[in-house]
User: Fold this.
Amino acid sequence: MSKFKAWIMASRPKTLTAASGPVILGTALAYNETQNISFIIFALTLLAALSMQVGTNLVNDYYDAIRGTDSDDRLGPTRVTQTGLIEPKKVKLGFILCFLFAVLVSIYLMIIGGWTIIIMGICCILAAYCYTGGPFPLSHYALGEVFALIFFGPVAVWGTYYLQYQSLNLDIIILGFGPGLISAAIMSINNLRDIKSDKRASKVTIATLLGAKYARAFTLTLILSSTFIPYYAALKTDKTWAIIATLSCYPFYRTWKHIARGPINSELNNALANTGKYLFLYSIALSIGLLI
Assistant:
């Protein structure tokens, strides 16, 4: 495998919908309020979010290999650090550069958003690093789903909204739980897939605490909960078409069925990818519903 392909693999492109979906939704919510948006702010916000996501993925790849969490029999996609495809020091440099790039493209956003965005940006970088790195890695103490719920939900959606329309709106925070719940479900599927290897590595996740049966139910509860948010959006914005986002979960019926009853094997990698597609489709559908 070429180094370029290895870096693409390490960035985990299938997970980038978790970063782009909330930015699209937050921008649509701002447009619904003002009938006007800045495309420069949208582009910079999207770039910063994607850089942060890639950086988080590289942190996860690096520290799971360093701590011995990853092993040769893992069911997930190939990890470049653990397999030696990329040297650990280069992966570490990679996530540092990703975070620096996110800061650079956010300079204009910090000027526009002031201390609110500066503090939010610092918290996002710290959380991205502490997800797997640092003395208290969040993903090793059953906080992975909480991290995804908050930072890929209300924080990302409201932060994007605030940059376009500087207003503190509780409804936007609640609507942000839509993509947040789906992001948490992605994390939950990941932990369900890795339940055996995580137990062996003494990694504590919600899946290892609940067991496979209840971890499946927990994941599906997150997915189901996301379908109620569009109804709240319709009530609060008077845009009844927002409800169409609820329908976006139905094309993935087979995915939900596999999570509920299927074997815990590498097929859950497809479930992860499909849930990422659901997040993106959900965000697009809800955004279109708000703009009609």
About this structure: The mean pLDDT is 92. The two ends are 46 Å apart (CA to CA).
